[in-house]
Amino acid sequence: MKPDWAEENLQTIRTLMERSAVYRRALAPIMFFAGLVGLATMGMGMFFHMNSAREFCGLWLGAAVVAVASALLIARRQALKDKEVFWSPPTRRVAQAILPPLLAGMCLGAFPVFTDTGGLTFASTLWVLFYGCALHAAGFFMSRGIKVFGWLFITGGCGIFYGSMANLIPDGISMWLMGFFFGVLHLAYGAYLYLTERKNPVA
Amino acid sequence: MNPEPFLQLDRLIHEKGRLAIMSMLAASPELSFTELRDTLEMTDGNLTTHIRALQQEGYLSVAKSFRNNRPLTTCSLTVAGRQAFAEYISLLEQIVRQNKPR
Q1: Does the distance separating the beta carbons of A13 and B23 come in below 8 Å?
Q2: Closest-CA residue of chain B to A140
Q3: pTM of the model
Q4: CATH architecture of B4-93
Q5: How far is B75 from chain A (nearest CA, A)?
Q6: pLDDT grade, residue A151 (50/70/90)?
């Protein structure tokens, strides 16, 4: 037997314990709320004709901040209700996984504000793509469904990109695209989770 | 080297597959049979054998239910299982300390 077998065993145990502690808090309410924020943002943007780059990006960046803050609050409420730690290791890992693509997407997606050359469809593409990457990254520490949901955004983002390059997607539908991806899809996924998620999950 | 801690190690948990199962369940209130099988890359038969051995010793409890009209088998550690696992870890740590050059 190797002299350091005990240390190796402990390391293996640590790795397995970390891998098994996946994020299990109920996602349905979070997805529902994010979907409502997405739809409300789209409605607001269309009602007030917020079609300039500055207005469009400001509106959706604001919506992103509201959605992320609300998601954290909902998760915290669930943790308090279950008498559990909110900032648990699985929660931390999920946050670490989604942060780089989420921030990169938010920053790059706001480029039309600085260039003032339009390109709102391209900005939407970047947001959708990077958000999909964030979801996929989170999927390594959550239930498998979130990875599939992430892939939906990634393929959707690529589809919008090539569609707009080939002039298949008309200009001026960025608000609709954002509303569909960040509103309708979230509501649909929230409904799916509501019907399939197990009750009393834990982080 | 004092062989005492090594001799005290729980032989049932010390087996690689069972130790992996216990480790995963120690970090989670419960895990499904599928989750265990997929993460540990075990065959159904192998996992069933290990689970049965741990269950017989009273370290693990198995619950069967239905989810989306499909049978769902979930495993969780019992109090005795958690205690045995904690003791096993503490003995391993003792062995590590002993093996460290002074």
Answers
A1: yes
A2: B39
A3: 0.69
A4: Orthogonal Bundle (1.10)
A5: 13
A6: very high
